[in-house]
Amino acid sequence: MPPIAPYRYFFFAAVILASAILQPTTFFRAAARILHIKQHLPVVNPAPAFLHTNRTLHTMAYEKELELALLAVQRAAILTKSVYSSHSKGTLTKTDSSPVTIGDFGAQALIIASIKSAFPDDEVVGEEDADDLRANADLKSLVWDLVQQAKLSDSAAEGSIGGPIKSADDMLTALDGGASQGGNKGRIWALDPIDGTKGFLRGGQYAVCLALMVDGVPTVGVIGCPNLPVDDKAPLDSKTGFDASSEGNGVLFGAVKGQGATSRALTDGKLAEPKKITMSPLPDVSQATFCESVEAGHSSHGDQAAIASKLGITKDSVRMDSQAKYCSIARGAGDLYLRLPTSKTYQEKIWDHAAGVVLVQEAGGEVSDAYGKPLNFGIGRTLKENKGIIAAPKSVHAQVIEVVKEVLSAKKD
Ligand SMILES: Nc1ncnc2c1ncn2[C@@H]1O[C@H](COP(=O)(O)O)[C@@H](OP(=O)(O)O)[C@H]1O
Ligand SMILES: [Mg+2]
Ligand SMILES: [Mg+2]
Ligand SMILES: [Mg+2]
């Protein structure tokens, strides 16, 4: 074989460098395979942000997961909307005295069936299970009727998420598919089929929330908010979207770690065109609009008012149920989300936060617990290492945490 001319080495080196930049995940995986490196490789952002503009260059990481999650949530929202507008919601009280409805059961079954059709090996941490339906045939048949009716009007979209669930027994199996104990290894979805069930029953905001966690890190987040106005800049007040019958309501939010966040109109068929969303610049925290739960039992309105006042905030809080709060600050309609604990023992559930956290991070925000500690999603079904939640634009997050700590330590004296 003739010797390789020296310039060819440069050519090979250039090709290797270009693949490492353009396709880092594939590159490092291939290199690991060649070098027989067995340890788990980190998730690598597929390419620098400037290359994302040209979609023909490469496939975006988690593109399939994002599309599946968006369509699965969109289909589940068809079901939740039909229950929302009917007067009988089949409400039960769970052992922790919180409510659950036929909407929660139906939406969870539909979404898990979609996940399993595309990613059969993935685990799911879902809020609900099929125990009540197995014990009550009438309840089971009510939910089965709803599940059969909830179809995307676009048959390709419906097919891409597995098509209809085949039988009532398959529905129960899907519903029970959310029993994963979570953890920090591999791919685990966190699902809240109806977040803000109390808002759903009261005629307020609610959200259908789904996140994919990879090695315990929320990586893909999708939230459907059937009662939020589509306009990202619609003024936010505690009445936002309360009239579910009004035109133009229903938003679908999506985000992938390292790729930004979007909103689009929620439809009953194929996905609408996405719009990029970002948090509002907030040069002066005293001008902030802050969001909090409607339910005083879910977060301390008193502590939140004290924090706002110390930050010089004079605007009233916007009280809103569900992860619609994360969505609202991610699209710049509000600025801060404060969730201070009401009890020493309550552990926040991962499905109440995973999707919202990806959305806010990707829109330019930071989310931590009340003491500024990062949220640990990789230790089970709850955030047991954390207390409370603070979400804010990156530029003011540390300033807000200082004030939160002052308010909390003053309480201890
Ligand atoms: N004592 C408590 N402290 C904090 N969150 C609580 C709580 N009791 C219930 N929750 C959670 O609060 C969620 C609703 O949050 P919000 O007040 O922001 O709307 C509920 O979700 P579900 O409605 O899915 O059960 C539930 O998981
Ligand atoms: Mg609940
Ligand atoms: Mg919830
Ligand atoms: Mg719920």
UniProtKB/TrEMBL annotation:
Keyword terms: Hydrolase, Magnesium, Metal-binding
Top-level lineage group: Eukaryota
Example GO BP: hyperosmotic salinity response
EC number: 3.1.3.7
A Pfam family assignment: Inositol_P
Positions of Mg(2+) binding: 127, 192, 194-195, 352
Protein's UniProt name: 3'(2'),5'-bisphosphate nucleotidase
Annotated source species: Epicoccum nigrum
